[in-house]
Amino acid sequence: MSGGGTIRTIGLLGGGVIGAGWAARAVLNGLDAVICDPDPEAARRIAAVIDNARTALSRLTLAPLPAAGTWRVVRRVEEAAEAADFMQESLPEREDLKIALLAQAERAMREGVVIASSTAGLKPTRLQSGLRRPERLVVGHPFNPVYLLPLVEVCGGAATDAAACRRAAEFYRGLGMHPLLLRRETDGFIADRLMEALWREALFLIRDDVATAAEIDDAIRFGPGLRWAFMGPFLTSRLAGGEQAQSGPAPKWPRTRMTDVPDLDDASLERLRDSCLVGILQTLKANRIAGGAALAEYEAALWQAQAAAARHMSQAAAPLHAFAGRIEPGWIDYNGHLTESRYLQIFSHASDAMLALIGADTAYVARGHSFYTAETHLRHLAQMHGDEAFYATVQVLGADAKRVHIWQELHRDADGAVTATCEQMLLHVDAATGRACPALAEVRAGLDPLVAAHAALPRPEAAGRAIRLNQRG
User: Fold this and answer.
1) Short-list 203, 215, 209, CA closest to 254
2) In what order do the strands lie in the sheet with 178-181?
3) Low-confidence winner among 177-181, 267-271, 466-470 (lowest mean pLDDT)
4) For the CA atoms of 396, 324, 288, 165, what is the dihedral angle to 10 degrees?
């Protein structure tokens, strides 16, 4: 994926928590990142965030991510700006600092490159005041961790061109995010204003000795917080008993008495946070709602990119490299080896990639036709262990109007060794009747060249093998 058309390199001003999160999301979506940060520890911190993000994304989706982009840290603003096809600023929340460095960056940037600020509350009209071309500045306000949470608030200032907002939204959407375009600029934008209202009420409850910080956290995480993952306040009010938020005066006292917090270090909390978010997003994806809908759309784009990459191979006399990944810790059984269900999952994703290539994709299924697996023969040839990289290939052994006969191999990436094979017969079915029927012409047009190309390949020696005990005399 390019992350937005012709954008290949993202320039980042600031490599802190948010800037490093942007770097991780960009790099793991195949973009190159040039990060301006003078801190000598910046490269180490950013590398740690990218490693966390890689682990989280590998658990979030099995869709094939593109080859990771490159990243480097520079000291001069101009180095990041000159390389940028899109600029994302994530500097400390100091208006004077942002205005000055954005203007410095603009002088080194190419015409037409959008400048986005990650500010959580500063208005874009003020931030663009030092620019020669203020029409290209927008706010692109993300949420931590940037590489997992899909929301990004996009807001223009008084001089912003609407096209710049659209281009920023398109770029973010290509990174698997959900851009929310604000109708007009306002202090704190939308999400932070809502969170501040909740925070304000929580402080009142602590001040008035109604509840401790831990009890307030429990009130949210065991109750409405679970609903808020898929319902906003209006849906919550309508569908969950009519709760209505009550407002009150803003407190004028320090944020104190925050006690009873978990005794975990920052790294442990980040891993726990990411693990919980992955689980919630996957559940929401199964129901195609809220952040899960954004994840489903992102995955669909990844699969389409995989099919496009494989399409040039469809007429080559070579098995399709259909799916690749890494063995996750949760895929390991009590013997320390890849568990059987995960072999089938890997081969299922490989066959899905082949079907998408020939046109039997999710849109085809939505129109009422699909290929069902009628028969499977799985062979285990070598053990696979946690964190090993792999790739799966698909060879079409034959096809007729209703059936496709395929041979799949799972390879260890390190040495190319075949660790398992899977032979399958796929049957084309009309979902409305539940009965086999000929594949539609568009799928046959995609399948026939693949069948012809693979006909030149040697037939696997084990194809068609049955399971049986040899009888000895």
Assistant:
1) 203
2) 71-74, 32-36, 9-13, 86-89, 115-117, 137-142, 151-156, 178-181
3) 466-470
4) -120
Residues with Cβ < 8 Å from 371, sequence gap 6 or more? 355, 360, 404, 426, 427, 428, 429, 439
Asked whether 370 and 432 are in contact (CB, 8 A), the reply is no
Burial string for 40-65 (b: 16+ CB within 10 Å, else e) reads eebeebbeebbebbbbbbbbbbbbbb
Specify whether the backbone of 35 is left (phi greater than 0), alpha (psi in -120 to 50) or beta.
Answer: beta
Q: How many C-beta atoms lie closer than 10 Å to residue 186's C-beta?
A: 12
pLDDT above 80 (res 256) = no
List residues bridging with 425 in a β-sheet.
Answer: 375, 405
Residue pLDDT, tens place only, 157-188 = 999 999 999 999 999 999 999 999 999 999 99
Residue 200 pLDDT grade (very low, low, confident, very high; cuts 50, 70, 90): very high
Q: Is 194 exposed, middle or buried (CB count within 10 Å of its CB: 0-12, 13-18, 19+)?
A: middle
d(CA 94, CA 101): 11
Distance between CA atoms of residues 242 and 224, nearest Å: 12
Nearest Cα residue to 423 out of 442, 395, 390: 395
What's residue 242's pLDDT?
42
Q: How far is CA 85 from the centre of its chain?
A: 21
Q: Quote the CA–CA distance of 257 and 203 in Å, as a whole number.
A: 9
Q: State the Cα–Cα distance between residues 21 and 377, nearest whole angstrom.
A: 43
Q: Quick one: tokens of 221?
A: 């995480």
Enter the pTM of the model: 0.76
pLDDT tens for each residue of 372-424: 999 999 999 999 998 899 999 999 999 999 999 999 999 999 999 999 999 99
- Quick check: 240 pLDDT over 60? no
CB atoms within 10 A of CB 359: 18
What's the pLDDT at 266? Answer: 78
pLDDT tens sequence across 42-89? 999 999 999 999 989 988 887 878 889 999 999 999 999 999 999 999
Q: What is the pLDDT of residues 92-137, one digit of tens each?
A: 999 999 999 999 999 999 999 999 999 999 999 999 999 999 999 9
